[in-house]
Automatic annotation (TrEMBL):
Residues 14-80 form the BTB domain. This is BTB domain-containing protein. Gene3D superfamilies: 1.25.40.420, Kelch-type beta propeller, Potassium Channel Kv1.1, Chain A. SUPFAM superfamilies: Kelch motif, POZ domain. Pfam families: BACK (PF07707), BTB (PF00651), Kelch_1 (PF01344), Kelch_KLHDC2_KLHL20_DRC7 (PF24681). It comes from the Eukaryota. Keywords: Kelch repeat, Repeat. InterPro entries: BACK (IPR011705), BTB-kelch_protein (IPR017096), BTB/POZ_dom (IPR000210), Kelch-typ_b-propeller (IPR015915), Kelch_1 (IPR006652), SKP1/BTB/POZ_sf (IPR011333).
Amino acid sequence: MKSLQKLRQNDEYTDVTLQSGDVNIPCHRNVLAAASDYFKAMFECGLKESTSDTVQLTMEPEILRSVVDYIYTGEFELTVDNVENLVKSADVLSLERLKANCADFMISQVDPHNCFQLCRFSTLYGLDQLQKVTRQFICAEFKTVAFDVEFKELTSSELIEFIKDDAVNVANEDVVFEAVIGWIRHDLDKRRSSFEEIMKYVRLPFCSNSCLWEVKDIYDLLTPKCFEYLHEAMAFQKDVAHRERISSGRTLPRANYRTKPCLLVVGGVTTVASGDIDSKRCEYYKEDTTCWESLTDLPWSLGSFYNVCGVDEGLILTGGFSENALEQCWLYDVVTKKWESMPPLITARCHHRSVSLSGGVYVVGGRGIGDVLASVERLDLRRRQWSTVADMPQAVCGAPVATFGNKLFVFGGRDAYNTPLRCTQVLDTTRGSWNTQSDTPDVCDVGAAVTLNDSIYLVGGFRRSCLKYDPASDSWTRLSRPQLAHVNAPAVVWRGSILVAGGHDPEESSSVIETYDPPTDTWTVCDIALNAKLSGHCVFTIDLSAL
């Protein structure tokens, strides 16, 4: 081949000239025919090209030079700028090995900003391995690529092909639903008619409750069939025991849905023989061994009185106190198993509460530098950016916080004079405005709030509270009290019951976990106990399938 290349370069024994624009490249027919079925067929077809000394090709001159060099040497230089044109030329000339080498190069270049373009290109030119890799990339990184500008330029049929894929890697269907809405809104007039067909493939039953509540914000897009899909999702979520009766493609879980929730305990203050110390541990309960296992140690120099909430990625830790209120924010990623420093809070605070809602983390009240705060701020998890939210009517610290639909409820707390409060403050996150609802019938001082089914429950605190709030009717019900006080203890929904873990009772920290069963209105001491006597800690259910 080196000798043939030298002969070509010296224009020796060449018998055909390839032309592109003003560029003429002398070649040998037998070499071209041996390398390419396209040239072989051309020289044998009996048409003028088979006998002509010149063959005109419709490709860029520099691309033709690269193709001829490849035919004679097996070597070529690939760049981001020339690879697509080389594929197109290789496809025309039936140079399959060149196409395959180009595809390998393109695979190494896949990123969130070009994956859809490369996937479409691979389909057009039959690059099977590139198509496989780009689809795998899109599924694995869906929550990132679904909000890139390329996603918004997909056709409706392309969009459906991607969201149909069981391998789409999302913790629940919220990201898929939000991506579809963004795609529709990008060209509303032309895409409105496609909405019903696309919604057939969105697995609404696996959306979060808050996401389903937000459907009313797109009421103008909903058709009768869309309402059927929505009612199916609500029925699926409500009737857990008989889900098998509700069967459709939308009720089949994706391969990456989180299916292994674990109890997770984070931080707090632990009681030891020498006194109380800040816990730096984060532990999960491993059911097959009935033991608490270490997940990670918290970052050093956190101080105390910070707050932690669970998000799809893992954990968000905010604020705290060390000589003064802190602005810190940390993310623990359950996939990488690492803590990452995040943009700081706008307002330094401690003794606050935080909660995840609609793709963001809301941080509520607390003590700032000098006083109790009415301020609220929100972290956009996708953009990793903080923004301010309208102030609460009443400044509070240590207030139990829960979400219901698209609303955030703040119950009681303490004011600047350390007086326990009974107020109920409600933020409508779609409107960004606050209002007040019925006061709590009893003070739930330093207790916790959780949402279960259609109600919010306030539990624990100094008065061993257990109150049920109905957001629909703005009414309260007193329920049976827990056996222990669980002061400054967290609560979480666990397998249809409410679990309250540790806390002070009345002055010493406890490791006891109690569970409340709403249908029977009864409390039971759980067989599981915390690994240490804790208060001021946080408890979640979180997916740790990778462990």
